Amino acid sequence: MSMPGVLVDGRPADALAVADRGLQYGDGLFETFAVRDGRPELWTAHLARLARGGERLSLPLPDPGLLAAEAEQLCRGVARGVLKLIVTRGVGGRGYAPPRPCRPTRVLSLHPWPAHPPGHATGGVRVRWCAHPLSLNPRLAGLKHLNRLDQVLARAEWDDPTIAEGLMCDPHGHVVEGTMSNLFVLRDGRLLTPPLDGAGIAGVMREVVLEAARGLGLVVAQAALRPAEVLAADGVGLSNSVIGLWPVRELEGRTWHAVHADLRRLAAAVTVARGA
Amino acid sequence: MSMPGVLVDGRPADALAVADRGLQYGDGLFETFAVRDGRPELWTAHLARLARGGERLSLPLPDPGLLAAEAEQLCRGVARGVLKLIVTRGVGGRGYAPPRPCRPTRVLSLHPWPAHPPGHATGGVRVRWCAHPLSLNPRLAGLKHLNRLDQVLARAEWDDPTIAEGLMCDPHGHVVEGTMSNLFVLRDGRLLTPPLDGAGIAGVMREVVLEAARGLGLVVAQAALRPAEVLAADGVGLSNSVIGLWPVRELEGRTWHAVHADLRRLAAAVTVARGA
């Protein structure tokens, strides 16, 4: 089969109307699924987050059964891949007012599994700080919406392929997450992760990590973190739906020489939880 | 001719690649021109703002001569209309890292002139407050980029057609602008407009208004404004490239019974400046 395969509103296509509000305004949501053995992982959790986003944006969503059928069609026979689902508010005229009625556009696209070195998951990754801040907006925080210029500009700050991720702060200097991942910090036996009430994306894998941590008996808390507190941590981890949980090995000069035992146990529990 | 006419990379088209980063991430910029007698107004000022945005986003822009030729092609014979120009970072793979090399996509589309009542310009408009705040990000502030979910959600807060615009605050409660316009406030003989260093779009017409105000001998200043200060103003105005300068007649119960003489003079000077 040819990758990536794309379905727009259920039909094979590689183009979308210029008047679609996804292009005009970033007026939509997306989800990124790891695909394994023909099946998108954590389907229910991703669809639940999409539903929460749809509610916050008053964006009517396609029928979940339809999405499942189209996802199955695209993923059939795919041993490993990545499925991206975009839902936009559909075609509208010029002007910000949402079209009424609104006919959302759905785009499913299949992509190759990224060729991350296996050492990333076992030995950890090199990470840097990004200067570009995340936009602060309590009403948009947590959502996986299509306004992703912050991530684009932060990710453009480096092209050293040995650096796997960049950490981003909000405009007040609190560390929030990576450009494509959520952040976890081990400190004094507790697993801390930044609150996402002002900026950031509430990752599906973040929930899996937090749930797995509780299952391991770790004390879990949300905590505002300054860069110095991340650097002072006993261990640092990054999560997303494709990578699972990566330990951080190096952060601009600060080195964690061995992967913390709790991070190792946590990564193993996450692997089990995602059904891999 | 059929409206809207659309050119994608110079060719008539109404679709764009699904993999375009304009759709995937809102990774691009746009400009909205008033078209009169076959000509987009304030072309040089719009292109200068586009260039500033391209620099801030490290987004290579199409040749200005090419854009001018395509705009002329679309606008030929159009007595009144609206031209929208979008430039995106073009097609890329999955992931935030910008494609290298990057081949930007340009989309020019022609739209009907909006049917605003003529009284809006002369007698003023009814305006409301929006609850949805503008995202705060000093690195993106001022740019007319494609991440416009804030404006979409604010504009969705009302559908009363007698309300022409909604005013938006930043998350700290400072008034910044309208969903589609910049804001001006007359107070004690001075013309004040909010600074755009944290949020908002630096409108081309905003510059025209400020320049015209200086030409009329008005004292002009940027000033952080709370909602109460807008309500207490001697006069309030709204500007964008299509509407020019509208006085505000009513803001949720507060009424300005006559258009302030300075606003009237200013609107007349703006009309002259835009060559109408």
TrEMBL record, chains A, B:
The molecular function terms of the Gene Ontology recorded here are: 4-amino-4-deoxychorismate lyase activity; pyridoxal phosphate binding
Alphabetized SUPFAM superfamilies for the sequence: D-aminoacid aminotransferase-like PLP-dependent enzymes (SSF56752)
PROSITE patterns from the UniProt entry: AA_TRANSFER_CLASS_4
Q: EC no.? A: 4.1.3.38
Q: Which GO terms describe its biological process?
A: 4-aminobenzoate biosynthetic process; folic acid biosynthetic process
- Could you tell me which pathway this protein works in? Cofactor biosynthesis; tetrahydrofolate biosynthesis; 4-aminobenzoate from chorismate: step 2/2
Question: What are the required cofactors?
Answer: pyridoxal 5'-phosphate
Reaction(s) catalysed by this chain's protein: 4-amino-4-deoxychorismate = 4-aminobenzoate + pyruvate + H(+)
The answer to whether the entry has keyword Lyase is yes
Question: Whom does it interact with, and what assembly results?
Answer: Homodimer.
Family classification = Belongs to the class-IV pyridoxal-phosphate-dependent aminotransferase family.
Protein name, entry field? Aminodeoxychorismate lyase
